[in-house]
Structures are given as C-alpha cells and as structure tokens.
Specification:
The structure holds two protein chains of two kinds. By secondary structure, chain A is an alpha/beta fold. The model of chain A has no long low-confidence stretch (mean pLDDT about 95). Chain A has helices spanning about 15-25, 50-55, 65, 110-115, 125-140, 165-175, 215-220, 220-225, 275-285, 360-365, 375-385, 430-450, 510-525, and strands at about 5-10, 30-35, 75-80, 180, 230-235, 235-240, 250-255, 260-270, 310-315, 330-335, 350-355, 390-395, 405-415, 420-425, 455, 495. In chain A, strands 1, 2, 5, 6, 7, 8 and 16 form a seven-stranded mixed beta sheet that branches. In chain A, strands 4-10-11-12-9-15 form a six-stranded antiparallel beta sheet, with helices on one face. A three-stranded mixed beta sheet of chain A has the order 3-14-13. Chain B has a domain at about 15-110. Helix content of chain B is about 55%, strand content about 0%. Chain B contains eight helices and no strands. The termini of chain B are far apart. Classes of the chains: A alpha/beta, B mainly alpha. At the A-B interface, helix 2, helix 6, strand 4, helix 10 and helix 11 of A face helix 2, helix 5, helix 7 and helix 8 of B.
C-alpha cells in the first residue's frame, strides 16, 4: 500500500536524527530510511580483550575494511585521505571521538577576512541559538569562558577530567603563554537525560558501550519515534524520484533482500553525509530533467569535497601517565594557531585536541601512533614510551577546491549493485605548509610540557572522518546547490541537512555544526511549512 | 560483526615454527620475556584467530614462507614487500598473542581498558588554583568579523 509521509529523511545519523526529532515533535509525519541497523551496545568491543584487534577489521572506521552488508564501498584510489564513516542509526557518531567544538565567527567569512575560499551566506550569530539548543539536547561537558570564542551559554555538564597528560600540557602552555582550554565533549561527565557518565575507558572511537558518548540513536531517535517518527532500518535508497513539475516525490529503496520499495513524501531531506548525499544526487540523474544529477544545475554536486588534513604529534614523558586511558574525545584543546597570522606562509589555521595514545597494539602497529619496531629494540621502545604519552590531534582547515570531488565509479558497486562513490582528493600545497607549521609548534608544546621525546605522524591517510562540502550552501543558484535554508535551488521540496552544505571546512570537528545546521533547517521548515511547495 | 567467539582451529599452522619466528620478532630482552617464555602463541593464537578469522590464511602463508633457521628482522621487512597481507597477519597475530599474556601485561603495567570513576566537579579545584588564569588574563583571541 502506498503511504505518503510529510517528510522523508534519508539517513539516521547526526543530521537525520536531529531533524527527525524536531520535525516529529512539531507535528510532522516523518519517515526515515537508514541502510544500517540500530547499534547493539552489547556488541561494542571496547571492554573486550580483542578490542585492538576488532578496530582493525570489523570495527574499522573504513567501510571498505569493515565490509559489512550495510556498508557501501568508497573508491579512493585517487585520494590522499581515506574516507571513514559508519552506517547505522546514529551514523558516524557511533565511531566519532565526541569532541564538540563550535565553528568560530571567522570561519564563516574566510573570503572577506583572508581572501581564500568563500564566505558562508549565514553568520556565526545565525547559528548561536541552535548551538545552544543542541548542546542541551546532546548533553555536552565543558567549561564556558574560552577566550578563543565569543561568550556563549554555559554547557549543561562540567568538563571531563584533564588527566595527568592534560594537566601537564596545560601547564606547558601556561609557560609558553599559549592558549589551552578544557575541550567541550559530547560525552557525559555526569548522569544526564537517563544516560550514564563516561568511565574513561579510552575506546570512544569504537563505540561507547556505556552510552556516555552522544549519538543520535541515544539522544534523538528515541524521542523522535516517541513523537511518531518511523524509522526503517536496512533500507538502502537507490534514487530520489521526481514529478513532472520538478518536485521530489520520495525515494526508491531496497530492503535487505533486495526487494524494491517506493516511499512517497511531500518533502525529502538528505542526511547521508557528504559522500552518500552527493552519490544519491548523482544517482538520481534523469535524461529529461537533470542529466548531470539531481539539484545539479550549478555543476557543483560532488565537488569541493573537504576532509581536513590530519596530523598526530605524540610526546612521551619519563614517567607513566596511563596514556591508554581517558576519553577520546580530548582532554584539552588549543586554538593558539587557529586564526590567520599574516606573518605565516599560509592563511587560516588548525585546532589541536589532546588525546590518549591507545593500548599496546595501537602503540606498535600502524594506525595512529604506531611505531613498528621488532627484535630486541621492540622492548626498549615499549619500555620507553608505553603509557607515557599523549597525542595532539591536529585538524587543519581544508579550503574548498573543485577538483576534490565525489562522483560515481564506473565499475564498483555496493551489495545491491548500485554504483559506488569514487573520491578524488589531493591535499593542497597550502595545506601542507599549514600542517608543517602546526606540527612543529605541537612538538614545541609537548617539549615545553616536559616530554623527553616527540614524534610526528604527518597528514595520516587513514583520517577522513570529516566529510564536507559536496553540495555547498549559497545565495546564487549558479554557484551553489542549496540556499540558506539548505533547500535545493533546483528542487524546492528537497533539503540537505548534512555537512555536504558546508561552504568551507573551518578547522574544527564538524559534528557540532552539522547538528546545529540540521536543527536550524528543521526549525525553518516548521516555520515555513505553510508556504512549502509539495507534489500534487 | 566481531562478538566474543570460540577459539579457532589452528591445525594447519605449525605452532612451533610460528613460535620460533615470533621469538625473533619479540625475543627476551630489556627485562621482557620472549614469546616462547610466556607460551603466548600456543596459549592465545586460537583465540586471536577466532576473533580475527581474516588473519588465518595470510598467517599460514607467512609461516610457510619464512624459514625460522634463517629468519631475521630484515627478512620480515622483505615479507612486507612480497606479501603485505601475510606481513600484517604475522605481526598482528604475534603482537596480539604476546600482549594478551597476563605476565606481559603485568610487566608493562597495562591492566587493559579499564573503567574508572571520578568526581565530575573536581575541575573546580584546578580552576580555583588558577590554572586557567593566564589564558583568561590574555583576553579574547577570536577575531571579530565585519558586518
């Protein structure tokens, strides 16, 4: 039987969950199609002895390595960074670190202030009410008053512990006269909204079994479904359907058995991340209306992919700091080198986040801080470093470039035979200068904090957590895909709620801003519902 | 999805040969035991391969390809070039077996990824102590934007 929803959301991750809850709580009949399943926290590996083995295969961040039925392959032969994601209710929040920084005012004005990239058509001030609201929904632990930001509402929970390493680096930065602040994290420091607090196990990026780390399967979907939203899992969308007037009518999806269904809706919201959303828009091309892909009259769908070049600088002290323990997440952050300084050979900057180093396998096998040494020297290395370190995780602002893109691979497909996305991406020379500077400063930071030894893992390929920019926001339909309400210029009842709409990347972890934007989009949809064009 | 699994059969892997290779990779040195000293391979390989079935066949290839009597760290590096999957399986399996040993964990001071409790309001102590004062005293570092 055909059933037509008010709103169809494609993807039940960060943006989909936030939009679904807000719309359902405001009376919209919401259906969401999610190709993954509800996460089973009892299967999360963090408390098990095989944790460090699991994160290299079944709990890898790469869908290509995991290769679960709900994953689709991402072809990245021509990319300097491997895209990472997780397909489930909650989306990639299941495996994100949980750090929760807002973007900064200058991030929205990089063309005006620094002559690069493009300005956003909205400002930091437009997002502040949504940042404040989403912090409450998520349950953010942090401390107000960070001078790297304009004053804003306090966080609902106190900051997570600094830990021994955080304390040492904080003192080191005080000696240097450099900025530091306790990192805001979407990880509970105290019980909140029926959830338990963090236990500092240090396994956040392979799923939080305690449920202390926020993901929308915990924070939004239970409330959305209680308000009437319907969530269909194991539902892989193959294309968005259109009517002759150029309005979206819903989406075709395949169940786990490969049986095809059609979900009708008045409004379609894409919330499938900057690779999945671009892929679906390109898959929805039709010869009559949109031969180059849906909502793609600008030719920008899939282009301007940004992924944040990522380096890790690790320092080791002479004594133990239990470097495998703590939230991951970050204990402290630094914006000392975030804003543009005209004396440097680059503009913009990077955010630093201090994180644990992991267990013994992460210490000596390649992944993050791995430093493979075999033979007698192995034990000398372990004795010198294990448990004694912490890492600055450094995300550099990634400026948009049209050749960095997502398109459809001509050969590879997912398990349903749908063409796989193909990513072409190069780290620019500008980014390389920016990251080299940051890496050198991070080594200074750790030395000033008492570390005897430091090491740099520069621009790690296995780091594409932050997928942004493939359907940018703008006022001009010739140079952008969606408007300031994240409504497609070409298709007035199609919205994009995920980080595809990012105009520039900023230098901070994007999930806080993704969710604030999704809440804003849903809120504006509620406000403008009477004027919304819908199919007949 | 990985869930706690039964140990895998390892009859097609020569445990003595693998242990001899592992002892070159992780010998007794710097106060630490060799792999064979803690019986890491025979004790933990079935469990490791139960958790990571994908390592099994490449590990068989690695053990077949390497002669323990001639094995050196240089030969291990050569395996990396010749058969990366076999190299990854060998290094991962050997390290996993070794660091599952309670003796080894005790020696390196690693209790596993343990749960800890803490006072969420302990931050008031380091705030009161003035740890953040220099940061606050330097004033805002964000840039005002035009318009």
């Amino acid at each position: 039987m055909t059933y037509r929803a008010d709103v169809l959301i494609i993807g039940a991750g960060a943006s989909g969950g936030v939009a679904a809850r807000h719309l359902a709580e405001h009376g919209f009949d919401v259906v969401c199609l999610e190709q993954g399943d509800w996460p089973d926290r009892s299967a999360f590996p963090g408390a098990r002895p095989d944790w460090e083995l699991a994160i290299r295969k079944d709990w890898a961040m790469s869908p290509n390595v995991r290769s679960r039925p709900e994953d689709y392959p991402v072809v990245h032969d021509d990319s300097d960074i491997e895209p990472l994601m997780y397909n489930a209710v909650g989306g990639s929040m299941i495996i994100y670190a949980g750090t929760w920084p807002r973007m900064l005012p200058s991030d929205f004005r990089v063309r005006t202030m620094d002559g690069v990239g493009d300005d956003w058509p909205i400002a930091y001030s437009d997002l502040v009410p949504y940042y404040n609201a989403i912090d409450q929904q998520i349950g953010v632990s942090g401390l107000a008053g960070d001078p790297a930001y304009p004053p804003h509402d306090d966080y609902p929970l106190p900051p997570l512990p600094l830990g021994a390493a955080g304390r040492r680096v904080a003192e080191g930065h005080n000696r240097l006269g450099w900025h530091w602040w306790p990192e805001p994290n979407a990880i509970l420091s105290a019980p909140y909204d029926g959830r338990r607090p963090c236990v500092q196990r240090g396994v956040c990026t392979s799923g939080c079994a305690e449920g202390a780390k926020a993901s929308t399967d915990l924070t939004h979907w239970p409330k959305a479904t209680a308000a009437g939203a319907r969530l269909i899992t194991g539902a892989r969308v193959s294309r968005i359907t259109m009517d002759p007037r150029g309005l979206a009518t819903g989406a075709v999806w395949l169940d786990r058995s490969g049986v095809e269904h059609h979900q009708e809706a008045d409004v379609v919201i894409l919330a499938a991340n900057a690779i999945g959303t671009a892929r679906l828009l390109l898959l929805s091309a039709d010869d009559r209306h949109c031969p180059d892909g849906l909502a793609n009259s600008s030719g920008l769908v899939g282009r301007r992919l940004m992924m944040h070049p990522f380096s890790v600088v690790t320092g080791w002290w002479d004594d133990q700091v239990e470097g495998w323990q703590g939230h991951f997440g970050a204990s402290i952050t630094s914006y000392q080198f975030y804003e543009t300084d005209p004396d440097r050979e680059f503009v913009r900057g990077a955010k630093w986040a201090l994180s644990p180093v992991g267990g013994p396998l992460n210490h000596i096998l390649p992944m993050r801080a791995g430093n493979e040494v075999w033979g007698p020297d192995h034990h000398e290395l372990m004795g010198r470093t294990f448990g004694r370190g912490a890492s600055w995780a450094i995300f550099g602002e990634d400026l948009p470039e049209e050749p960095n893109r997502v398109d459809l691979d001509p050969e590879r497909t997912d398990s349903h035979g749908i063409p796989a996305p193909r990513v072409s991406y190069r780290i620019s020379d500008h980014s390389r200068r920016l990251m080299a500077f940051q890496e050198a400063r991070a080594e200074e930071s750790l030395r000033a904090s008492g570390c005897r030894e430091t090491a740099v893992a520069s621009m790690i390929p296995y780091s594409g957590w932050h997928l942004m920019g493939t359907a940018r926001m703008g006022n001009d339909s010739a140079s952008s895909v969606v408007n300031t309400r994240q409504q497609a210029h070409d298709v007035p009842n199609l919205y994009i709620a995920d980080a595809s709409v990012f105009v520039t990347s900023s230098g901070v972890n994007p999930t806080c801003t993704i969710t604030a934007l999704a809440l804003r989009t849903a809120d504006l949809l509620v406000q403008h519902r009477s004027e919304q064009k819908v199919p007949a | 999805m990985t869930t706690p699994t039964s140990p895998a059969p390892t009859a097609d892997i020569d445990i003595h040969r693998l242990t001899a290779l592992a002892d070159v990779m992780l010998p007794a040195a710097h106060g630490m035991p060799a792999v064979s000293d803690v019986k890491a391979v025979e004790s933990y390989l079935p469990q490791v391969l139960g958790w990571r079935k994908d390592l099994h066949q490449p590990l068989v290839r690695a053990v077949d390809a390497l002669d323990p009597s001639l094995f050196t760290i240089d030969r291990l590096s050569a395996l990396h070039e010749e058969d990366e999957d076999a190299y990854v399986a060998l290094t991962t399996a050997v390290a996993a077996c070794y660091y599952l040993s309670p003796v080894v964990r005790e020696l390196i001071g690693y209790p596993g990824q343990a749960a800890k409790t803490y006072d969420p309001f302990a931050y008031t102590e380091w705030v009161a102590e003035g740890l953040l004062d220099p940061v606050v005293d330097r004033g805002p570092i964000w840039r005002e934007v035009p318009g």
